[in-house]
Fold this protein.
Amino acid sequence: MKKFFWVILTAFIITSCNMSNPLLETSTLPYGAPRFDLIQDSDYRPAFEQAIQEGKKEIDLIANNPDAPTFENTIIAMEYAGNAFSQVANIFYNVMEANTSDFLQQLAEEMTPLVNEYSMYVSLNEKLFQRVKAVWELKEQLNLTNEEARLLEKSYKGFVRNGANLSAEDKIKFSEYSEKLALATLQFGKNNLAAQNAFKLQLTQEEELAGLPDYVKNIAAETAAAKQMEGWVFDLSYPSYKAFMQYSTRRDLREKLYKAYNSKSVGGEFDNNSTVKEILDLRLKIAQILGYENYAEYALEMRMAKNADKVNSFLAALMQPTLPVARKEVAAIERYAKKNGFEGDKIMPWDFTFWSEKYKDATYDLSDNMLKPYFQLDSCINAVFGLAGKLYGLNFAERNDIPAYHPDVRVYDVTDESGKHVALFYADFFPRESKRGGAWMTSFGDQYKTLDGKDVRPFINIVTNFTKPTADTPSLITHDELTTLLHEFGHALHGMLSDGRFVSMSGTSVARDFVELPSQLMENWAYESEFLNSFARHYQTGEIIPAELIEKIKASKNYLSAYAQVRQLHFGIIDMAWYDRNDVPTENCEEFEQKHISATAVLPAVKGMAFSPSFGHIFSGGYSAGYYSYKWAEVLEADAFSLFQEKGIFNREVAASFRDNILSKGGSMDEAEMYRNFRGHDPQPSALLKKLGITR
């Protein structure tokens, strides 16, 4: 998931401007939805320029106010400033992630100095900071509500963490570092997408398709036709890559595709090794000029974990019992492979997905290919909507009259049981060359309340890369993709059900290591019979998913759970290794990764492979020194879901408590306190280890 906060103060009030520009004008669409039907690429630059000019005037009025600083005329005033800029930025940067073009990428680079200068105009504004500081020093006398006190604290610390206490000379340096960092992260993502799109595995002989199911071949044929190429084409989008690695019996071609996928942006025209070093160097400089020892110390200060020692101890505490189990899992697959025709000395990474799928099929008589016919995407979408109805009383109605940023995107009007509008929900499911890989949730505008108390409802968006429909087959997704849909929908619920006063603390604006709780909690329903029975029917026969298949899904739930956990822990370990240090490593990404994870490897290393150059989460996303958050939140959700298991998976009382104590609160109070209010106690890592079957 991703949100864009380019300045400390953000709000999403629709404003009228003199300039005729659909990015700035008040939308006449239902609920003030963005005018994607009118927005042209040429609108972005003038919209940014005018919005920044307007935002500066609003900041000047606050900073130069002759009245003594108060919570209302300073903190509240800042919270409701910058409206137009926030509106433009949220649309532009979200579209650039999901439907980019050379023009938008170039424009993003050109706008970076302007956007950075505006951000610094706010965060390094001495007059403005002195007013904020004056209010902060009077906080004990102000009789603020808890939510107001939280806003004051975040506002003050936001200024300090953005350089307000620096000398004039250091403020200039801070601004320079920030602008360069913004450009470097843009370049990282640009290289990543270009590297992904540059590779095509074109097959022209039937024998090259050995082992592939018909649906995989059909998709590859349609991909080739769309690109005006002969035969079948596989690319590095995840549905295409995963299916080939699972089913192809051609080991040579699996190796070729594996190496292409796992060396994205490693060397060549789109190499990110130097970009990684540049990002690390700039983040370290920013942290140190602010008085922190390194970037991890800076990033973790505002998260639940608080410091690197706690994170590293947390990761180690999970790795210690998990690693031996993961090695046993890999050894079992290798033994199975050798008994069933594998002739190599040792199973390699490009063999693992193929043979683990075979082993799963043999052990549980279950494969993705068996399950996909029961998981038609449209049925899954309706089931997820139905789940939100049972838990939270929500209803979803598709709105074909509200435009989106791409024809593939669907728009839904979300209402509660009384018929009251809750949110607009945008869903973008299929891969394309203009969209980066992965899955995420974001928003075009978050929930907040206006100064006169009007509740402004959000525009929430989820983006995935699921298998596209073909001419004769609807979109059929894997069970893993069903969990991904539930995961991103959990983030969406966090945004949709927000009920806060201030936009800067609404929805998913919470500590990074707390934000994955609602999303990972939702994944649990993918393994519940009562939920699966409500929608999983064969797309051709209409047959409800057999009970024995559901039992196999449950039985295989923890299949390779230790292996998968080690993989996630490796990502977290590398993330912390990059950022929990006081210098920039001299090694390239491949050497650095092997240095830190070779001792806990479960598969052989392959020369020339590295995941850091395409690890957008920690280099161009919001998870720098924060990837551990996924495991941290898994501990929370394992404990949280146990209450649903105890009371009933559709229990409205438990759901209401989760909504009232977690989903509606945003970042308006301490996250640990929110969790205790819901669950009654603090969770322990043992809850996750037990859930995964790693310990008893």
